[in-house]
Structure formats: C-alpha cells, structure tokens
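Our preliminary data section would be incomplete without showing what the modeling component actually yields. Below, a chain of 363 amino acids is followed by its predicted structure, encoded as tokens that our downstream tools consume directly.
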Amino acid sequence: MNADEIIVNDFIEDFYNTNFEYLRLIFENMDVLFKSCNMLLDIFGNLIFDNEFEIELEKIKPSSFVKNMMLINDFYKKLHINFQIDEVANKGILDITTNDREKVIKNKDDEAFYGGWTNYLDDGKKSIEVNNNGLVTDSSIWVHELTHYRNQDDDGRSEVGDILTETMSFTYELIYLDYLEKDYPYEAKALRIDMIMNTYSQCFVDTWNMMILFIIYDKLGNITEENFKVIFPNYAIDDSYERLIDYANTYIVDNDEITDSLLYTIATMLSIYMFMEYKKDNSFIEKIEMFNAKINNSTIEELFNIINLTNYTDDGIFNENNFKKLLESFGSYKDILFNDLVALKGIEQSMDSVKGRTCHYPK
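Predicted structure:
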C-alpha cells in the first residue's frame, strides 16, 4: 500500500469500529443501500447535471412571522396533527433571529436562508433556533426544525431516534411544501428542487464513495486496487481506483460531517418513499405520525414495519422487496421534480430523455 491507501484504510477501520453500533442500520444493509444510493444518483443525475438551478430569492413572497405561524398551524390542523407552533413560542423554546429581508436577498445569505437548529441546552431543556427573514420559505425551515422538536424525548434521543430524526424532518418538510404549493407555487417547487440538488452535491456522492470503501473493507478486510477490482469489476476502469482513493483523502478522511452525509442520504431515501406513499393515499400520514411518535422507543425493524417496509426475509430491512418500493418512489418523485423544472425553467426535454446515467467517480 502507498501512503494515501494507508490513510484511507486506517480511517475506514477506525470509523467502522467506532460507529458500528450507532450506524448498524447502514453497516448491516450496505449492499442494498449502495444499490439504493446508486439509483438515487442515476435517477436524479440527469435532472441535476442537465438543469442548473438556483433559487431566485427576489421571487420569494414576503411573509411576516405571524403569517408563517398561521400557515404552519393550518398545515398541522389539515393533517389532524395535535400540535401548534404557539406551544413552543409561548414556552420560550423558540429562539428567533430576525434578519433584514432585503439584505438576505441581496447578499444571497445561505446561512440565514437555510439556518435552523434544534438542540438540548446545558440544563437539559429543549431549544429551537430559527431565522425570521420575512420570507414565506422561512416556514418550511421551521417545520423541519419543529419535527426534530416533536421527536425529542425530554431525556434525549435514542440511538435509533438520533439516526432517523433527519428522515422525519425531511418527510414533513416535503409534505409541507406540498401543502404550500397551492398558494405559493414558485416557493414550493423551488425548494423541492433545491433540496434534492443540495443533498445530491453534499451527501450522495460522499456516501456512494464511502459505501464502496465500507463494502471492500467488510468483505475483504483491506482496501486495495486488487480488492476493488474483485468487488467492483464494472467500476474498475482507467484510473477509477486512484480517483476513489484521491476522493476519499480529499473529502472523506477527517471530514467531521461524513456521518451526517450518510444519515442525510438515508433520510432522502426514506422521506421520498414516505412522501410518495402519502401522495398516493393521504391517510398514510397516520403511519408517518406513528413512526415519528415511536422513534425513540422502537427498533428500526419495528419502525420500518409501520411504514410497510417489512422484513419479509432474513436479508434485512433493506431487502429486495423494500428496494423495489424505494425504487418506485424515486421514479415517481423524479417526475414531480421534472415537472417543477418545466414550470420554473420552461425546459423542453421530454420525460423519456431524462433517464439515469451510469455513475462514475467524481473527477
């Protein structure tokens, strides 16, 4: 092994041993998760590569703090969810930073536009930090953070809850954008596109490369070019192994956010599935709510069973049957995103031309 390979091997071994129990869902279902991640890249790749998109902040409608609260409360009411944002506002849990709307737009202030955090304070109390930019899109971020709050137990999250809380926040944010679309079509469509593009660039590619490294390590023990060719002969072309090691050293080793990339990728897969099940039958929200309510006191298998991703075989919860369900939902969601792009950009591509492309290592 050369020096770069040794660094990557040491990192993967340490990460695997340190995080195995915490990331059991990922490690025990790595093969099918890799296939799912590959399908995410393939299905959404053309939409992203062929259609550059950036939210035009000046097109986003202004909205007051009170108006956004009213929207959120109406959203929960229509879903028959017994929760109102007033509960956290009146308890002093909601920590709001008010920003100048014109400055946020002029400066394209991503930190203000996307910022939101849900935490436990040093005294154990819960805290939700959000920005009030005077934009209707603020409410989408608030729903995301409120979902984290709603599945926070007073004494902390379980390991399962910690892994899947982002899944639930993504899911409710997608459902909220669906609710918002009737009166705010630009905002809903733009945020949907933006969510998948940000996650694609920030998480999917990192996760895809990480999973290749984990699979080689798990099956053969060492990450070498020879082992890479044994496990992934279809990818062993040209300088692909060298690019894999280079990518790992550049973007993965010593990356404090690599765990988040893995969890955000899982969140994207499952949230798209749950959202599309909700779109087929709105009563599926009852299963989503049950999943959210039991997130800290159930096993992953029990939670997946709630949303009809059943462990039918000994192949694990990401078995072939569940993989097919995820794949179907990815395709349906791609259709939604394509129509969003048609509406916002007027692209003339036919749906048949937007097919997945084979993934290769980033150059």
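Confidence is low (pLDDT under 50) at residues 348-363. The beta strands are 94-98, 116-120, 126-132. Preliminary results of this kind motivate Aim 1 of the renewal.
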